[in-house]
Specification:
heterodimer, A: 502 residues, alpha/beta, Rossmann fold, six-stranded mixed β-sheet, 32% helix, globular, B: 308 residues, mainly alpha, ABC transporter involved in vitamin B12 uptake, BtuC, two-stranded antiparallel sheet, binds adenosine-5'-diphosphate, binds magnesium ion
Amino acid sequence: MTTPVISLSGISKYFGTLAANRDIHLNVHGGRIHALLGENGAGKSTLMSVLAGRYQPDDGSIALHGREMRFTSPAQALESGIGMVYQRFMLIESMTVTENLLLAAQKKIGGSNCRRLISETAEQYGLAIDPDKYVYELSMGERQRVEIVKLLLLDADVLIFDEPTAVLTPVEIDAFFTVLKKLRSADKAIIFITHKLEEVLELADDISIMRKGRVIISTEADRKQISKRQLARLMVGRDVVLRVNKEEIPPGETVLRLRNFSGADVHGTTRFENIDFEVRRGEIFAIIGVAGNGQSGLVSAIAGLTRADSGEVSFAGSTFNAREWAKAPKDDMAYVPEDRYHTGCVGSMSIAENFALTQIGKYRKGATKLALDWQKMSEDGTRAVEEFKIKAQSAQDTAQSLSGGNLQKVILSRELSRNPKLFIAEQPTQGLDISATEEIWQALLKCRERAGVLLVTGDLKEVLSLSDRIGVIFNGRLLDIIDATDSDQIGRVGLLMAGVTS
Amino acid sequence: MMEDIVFIGQIAIKSSVAVLLATIGEIITERGGVLNLGVEGMMIVGALAGFAAGFATGNPYLAIAAGAMAGGALSLIHAFFTIKLRSNQVLCGLALTILGLGLANFLGRPLIGEAGVRIRAFAVPYLSEIPYLGEIFFQQSPYAYGAYILGPLAWYVMFKTRAGLVLRAVGEDAAAADAAGVNVAATRTIAIWVGGLFSGLAGSYLSLSYTPGWKETMTGGQGWIAIAMVIFCTWNPLRAFWGALLFGGLTALQFFFQATSIDIIPAYVLKMLPYLLTIGVLVLVTSSGKRRRSASPADLGVPFSRES
Ligand SMILES: Nc1ncnc2c1ncn2[C@@H]1O[C@H](COP(=O)(O)OP(=O)(O)O)[C@@H](O)[C@H]1O
Ligand SMILES: [Mg+2]
């Protein structure tokens, strides 16, 4: 092969004492798609941030076209043609697309012909964008296109994508892959971080797998020889079952029923309108949709965090109108919120304290019931840590010191221990790696034996693996409810998510 | 009647210049994402330095420059602590005010009662002859004319130029600006420094033009009013004129009522009004989700670091 465009040698990066990257060697070639695969926390984002100039390596060197480089800022890396689309898009939401592009590429596109340059670049790679829209008005797919155009305007010839498909609809993912292929034909070097194996097998020319801060294997992708199973084993370090074992359970009584439920979204602009569905004991009812289609407002109104405007809720035998529902007691309802770091826990408090938070009544003691039984709290916390295999030194560790997967296990086990009739899980495995996902899925399936589960997610695979019935939400409306066992209909879910109804 | 209105108008402008300049400066700083509560401190230091330089050299230009530079110098302390050391911006700003007040009080003692340079009002040819309006707006201190120009200039730079785009980007989302190749630390340092220059200038107006002389209480809380005004005018330098005029107008009414011993509204109520209005506007601005987006810079008060 030709000389690599990028050659990393011996890169190490520490955060305090934690080695996020250890002695990493990696070659990336022009005109090829290089997939960087690994579990959460393997160090993929850190490594790429080093390459893109955002972080300084503690050791090792970066060579670009064989010449050694040192980047002390993203600006310098960009100047040398290395650009990165971060997992969290780096766009300024209160500014327009043009302003964002000007901010990054003033020297290249400044002046009167800036609009023409933007639209030319966009068209060349099939990246339709409206330059006058504000970024907060754009869907995640559109934002991603703006990010790509930004890098192209800067003449980047190494493009790094950090988990680019995590926020996209299936239709948007296809469009994105088409763009990637065009970039590849234009001889760009593309690095593509993911932990989704299908994507790797579909696209990658080269594959590197990271585990615990090291690159454990770096190889050309030969589609005939590598199987999903092998990749998964390399990534996790052991065999993983990607299918869940779901037993048949006959559905029981209805625990939650919504009628004509309408209200505002929590932050976005999409209201949810006239939502009707029911959740029965023994089933997992999934609401799937791309983020920003009204589901966050819907869930927070169901959980009683916000008040819906109209409609009716029946829960565990009683019926409430929208107003009454916000104040109604919800002891029999458990809620695992999407934002596990802020809504789901108090970061600076210990695991044991967090564990007690939503069931504080259990720990009151003394004649006045004003004191708390710290002893019992700490015992229960310790038990949960053991039972759910939460990786922490003790139940006294703070919640914020846990990784995403372990924190999610704390929250999930807390809510499960309340023995709810309805269990609401919002994006329960978002950003988690295969093994944590697997454990969370098992827990949800187990929960279904005793309660009704309402699963709200954007992850198609999660829905297909877990749910019994699937409601697709688009633009604030529940477009259809599909039986998960109906193999003719199930293919429509992806289309419905994109608003295609016919 | 008309005479009264012109009188009130003139006093209103006169009393609003310092607040206006300081507000414009603080808007620039906050648009860059840094809250500097040290305005009062920078103003009093600017007032002292301006007066002292004028007293020593007799040169009004040097006096004005010294006032601005002193405010700028003090602001760099804020820059060092909040950007380099990433200390808490609120605490650091408060400390700056206390430091400035103490420093000015201590160093200014020998100057109390001395007479220094005086920058007098002058009438702008032609413009000042416009009936009523000319008298109100164009028979003022050169500082006022400076403010008439600096406000729109700040607006133009902020919203129409590359520098302004960078400034706002850093205030809205420092991480995104950084990824786009902007030097966040440098931009913020400059924003703080320019804010300091404005505050110092505002202070020197008080000691050279508004009430020429040196008194350690001469800022009288105007720095705090300026900070409130920033919110009142939703971080827009053009709206700063309205905020400052409102403050000046209320001050002028106090004078007017005192001078004519008419007492329709008690002076204390008038003094309270700018604060009450600010609270009211703040409620209005933040209660509507859509407008909130354009109001406060999203990263205001948030220190930036790549590795966290
Ligand atoms: N800014 C940071 N400060 C401290 N630790 C960090 C920081 N960023 C990442 N880490 C830690 O470094 C490790 C690797 O993280 P990351 O590169 O984000 O992994 P990946 O992208 O593969 O999921 C993780 O253990 C993570 O907790
Ligand atoms: Mg990552």
